[in-house]
Design goal:
It is a single chain. This protein is an alpha+beta fold and 134 residues long. The chain has a single domain, classed as Roll (2,3-Dihydroxybiphenyl 1,2-Dioxygenase, domain 1). Helix content is 19%, strand content 35%. It has three helices and eight strands, in the order βαβαβββαβββ. The protein has helices at 18-28, 40-43, 94-103, and strands at 4-14, 32-34, 48-53, 56-62, 86-91, 109-111, 114-118, 124-129. It has an eight-stranded mixed β-sheet, with helices on one face. β3 (48-53) and β4 form a beta hairpin. The chain is globular and about 45 Å long.
Amino acid sequence: MIEITRINHSAINTRDQLEAMRRFYVEVLGVQTVARDIPAKFADRIPGFWMQFPNGQVHVIQCDPERAGEPLPGMNCRHANPMGPHTAFFVADLEAAARHLEQHGIAFDRFDRFIFTTDPSGNTVEFQQDPERI
């Protein structure tokens, strides 16, 4: 069993309205933002901003919906799309989570400290090591 400790974030997309989205959420609704914690090699290719709430984050990612199913260049995604809408969970042990998915024949993509897979309906699911459980 994978020990999910808490929700990390959910992600929503915008095609070409990134600044309008930022104004709406930050200036109109007053949502706080935080610095994005993305590996440098991907940061420039994933435009967006992260909103912080007491119980997790919502990531706004700019992505052309017509290309949403395509892998991010350099990521070689075969099984999931980290650029599209998704839900991310923190887990107690990321290596154990990878072994568990393998044991159950669940295909996934691994990038640094991220695991991406899909649920039976095709929704992208992300797993990250819970920093409070290292």
